[in-house]
Task: inverse folding
């Protein structure tokens, strides 16, 4: 049998350590000092074995009675140890020969761990232990336990952090007047307390992150986030943009041609946007509104304003289906008032594409709508004045950068149907101005939501049948299979075949992400015109699709979908006059999280309420793909802490104006070189 030495297989020690530290983001002294404990252990006291509470970690001082390796049920090392009050067993399932050697009868140990009732009486599994040195005293401070990674021990981390604390610059970046106003402790004192708590600090106070020292760190982290976002905002604002001034002829013509009046919320948003467009610096605005709140018409008004001011406008959407919906709708609105709308996606034939690109470059085409094909290198606008992006967070970082370059000097409007709780919005959108559509157009009938077990699928199929025979239409959303697109496709095709067999007298269509664009478009337009009655679809229809006659939606394996997804999907129905329903088919058994999600979606139709619950269930880290958004995840602060977020926002504003050097130092400490990432 070959004999492998672990040590030989690993790369050189220094490299390994550096790599592991890098994995934790620990490069500079500032990184180390801001790497704060997860919790603390109290090794300042010895607990008598008799007084130990099961499940609570404690330190004991014991003498080894005996130790042995046993083989039942598997190889393990057992040591009997005792103090004056009682005895217990130490159990090691993995151990080194050196550990075994240390556990000789008669040796005095300090051990730390949680006591459990084991087969042989009280025991501790894998305790931390060391042999007590002659005259060794107890530590005076609580022991910090740091977040770490495999192969990097607490002792090493502690040592490195202590060294960094000695060397690092702990100057307070928060001007004293601001700090005192907020009643926060000084930075150096707060940081030292958290790494090496003074003897009088108790574990309970530190572990609950309510301590002023923790508040200071949380505030600083939020401040760094706000500073960085505000700075990016100011930098973009400093660039010039054409003032778009229009006499409102075209916008008035559009409004006169619509079969409805704008809601109050739409009017307000449009006023805010029009005011921005008249400024000599680029608009950086987000138009946020729940599904169905009517963002498209506001976008149309903005584009007409730009056109009338002599510029071009572009609207980009993350999927071809969504882009095409926009195109159809806008073409139907704008062509009658004499404005040409061009359509550009990657799937156009080469010749068509070249023709569109040429008309965009010459300025003949005032308005272009499409997918990210719009921001490809070949596309040059003659005089782009306004760039609108729908569901911006669904684009990748690279595409967002490309867009930024292309629209560098244009006004920008982002649109989103992802409702974000207010505190979260302050962080995500600190670099944007926000207009909110907080009211739905009148005349909508609320969607009824039903939870139905998969076992009753037949009844649901019957319901679809009935609805379609009565002239209605239905969506049938296929199960989500996140781990494999191929499997997802296969499932979609099976679902389609099964429904086609179950409902032979209905016309059924299938749309999924792998279809060619032309095929997709054909299916969608057949659904729009009611040639197809049941549309079997993957989540490609999640956003933006608008077919008012479709009043029934079935979501299969609803328990696999996220809350935001379910809300978006459900928003596809309830757009017409008919009473609409959304049926969530679920399979037993339901996990705890799935059950909680279904409960929320069943009980609420309010996007903001659902988003709040989503945030609660998932935590802000994952919310709308925080990683993708380029925003660093918060380690210590909680975005739900509205008061602190608001203070950080105000202080950031103040510091950028009155203490720019302190602001720069603060950013350097917290973000180091990583700030660039934020700008993506
Ligand atoms: P979303 O905000 O989800 O993008 P849309 O812009 O697609 O919403 O609008 C949803 C539907 O409501 C569309 O059919 C649109 O024409 C219609 N709509 C928009 N504004 C109004 C309004 N003020 N009154 C009535 N219907 C409206
Ligand atoms: Mg929309």
Result:
């Amino acid at each position: 049998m070959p004999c492998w030495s672990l040590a030989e297989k690993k790369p050189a020690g220094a490299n390994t350590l550096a790599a592991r530290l890098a994995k934790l983001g620990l490069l500079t002294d500032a990184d180390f000092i801001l790497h704060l404990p997860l919790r603390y252990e109290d090794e300042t006291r010895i607990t008598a074995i008799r007084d130990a509470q099961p499940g609570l970690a404690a330190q004991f001082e014991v003498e080894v009675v005996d130790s042995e390796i046993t083989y039942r049920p598997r190889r393990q090392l057992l040591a009997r140890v005792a103090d004056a009050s009682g005895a217990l067993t130490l159990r090691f399932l993995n151990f080194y020969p050196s550990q075994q050697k240390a556990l000789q009868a008669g040796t005095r140990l300090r051990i730390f761990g949680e006591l459990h009732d084991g087969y042989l009486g009280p025991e501790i599994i894998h305790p931390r232990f060391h042999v007590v040195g002659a005259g060794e005293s107890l530590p005076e401070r609580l022991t910090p336990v740091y977040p770490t990674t495999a192969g990097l021990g607490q002792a090493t981390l502690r040592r490195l952090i202590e060294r960094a604390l000695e060397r690092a610059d702990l100057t307070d970046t928060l001007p004293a007047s601001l700090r005192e106003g907020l009643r926060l402790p000084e930075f150096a004192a707060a940081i030292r307390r958290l790494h090496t708590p003074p003897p009088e600090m108790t574990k309970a106070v530190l572990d609950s992150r309510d301590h002023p020292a923790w508040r200071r760190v949380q505030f600083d982290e939020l401040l760094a986030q706000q500073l960085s976002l505000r700075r990016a905002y100011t930098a973009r604002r400093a660039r010039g943009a054409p003032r778009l001034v229009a006499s409102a002829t075209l916008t008035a013509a559009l409004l006169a041609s619509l079969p409805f009046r704008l809601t109050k919320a739409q009017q307000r948003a449009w006023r805010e946007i029009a005011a921005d467009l008249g400024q000599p610096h680029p608009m950086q605005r987000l138009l946020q509104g729940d599904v169905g709140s009517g963002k498209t018409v506001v976008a149309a008004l903005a584009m007409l304003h730009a056109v009338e001011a002599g510029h071009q406008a572009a609207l980009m959407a993350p999927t071809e289906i969504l882009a095409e919906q926009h195109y159809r709708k806008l073409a139907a609105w704008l062509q009658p008032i004499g404005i040409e709308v061009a359509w550009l996606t990657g799937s156009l034939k080469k010749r068509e594409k070249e023709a569109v690109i040429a008309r965009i470059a010459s300025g003949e085409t005032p308005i272009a709508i499409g997918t990210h094909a719009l921001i490809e290198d070949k596309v040059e606008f003659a005089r782009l004045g306004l760039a609108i992006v729908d569901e911006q967070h669904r684009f990748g970082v690279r595409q967002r950068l490309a867009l930024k370059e292309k629209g560098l000097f244009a006004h920008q409007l982002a649109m989103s149907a992802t409702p974000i709780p207010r505190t979260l919005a302050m962080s995500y959108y600190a670099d944007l101005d926000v207009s909110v559509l907080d009211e739905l157009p009148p005349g909508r009938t609320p969607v009824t939501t039903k939870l139905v077990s998969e076992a009753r699928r037949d009844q649901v199929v019957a319901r679809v049948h009935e609805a379609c025979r009565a002239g209605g239409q239905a969506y049938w959303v296929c199960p989500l299979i996140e781990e494999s697109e191929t499997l997802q496709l296969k499932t979609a095709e099976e679902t389609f075949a099964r429904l086609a067999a179950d409902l032979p007298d209905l016309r059924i269509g299938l749309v999924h992400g792998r279809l060619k664009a032309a095929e997709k478009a054909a299916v969608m337009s057949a659904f729009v015109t009611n040639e197809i009655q049941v549309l079997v679809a993957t989540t490609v229809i999640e956003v933006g699709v608008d077919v008012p006659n479709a009043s029934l939606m079935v979501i299969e394996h609803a328990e696999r979908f996220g809350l935001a997804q379910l809300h978006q999907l459900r928003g596809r129905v309830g757009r017409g006059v008919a009473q609409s329903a959304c049926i969530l088919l679920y399979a037993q058994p339901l996990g705890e999280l799935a059950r909680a999600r279904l409960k929320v979606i069943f009980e609420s139709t309010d996007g903001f309420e659902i988003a709040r619950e989503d945030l609660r269930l998932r935590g802000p880290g994952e919310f709308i793909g925080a990683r993708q958004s380029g925003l660093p995840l918060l380690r210590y602060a909680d975005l739900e802490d509205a008061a602190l977020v608001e203070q950080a926002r105000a202080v950031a504003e103040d510091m950028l104006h009155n203490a720019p050097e302190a602001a720069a130092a603060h950013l350097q400490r917290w973000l180091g070189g990583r700030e660039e990432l934020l700008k993506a």
Summary: The pocket of magnesium ion (ligand 2) is lined by residues 295-296, 544 (CB under 6 Å). The domain at 249-437 is CATH 3.40.50.300 (Rossmann fold).
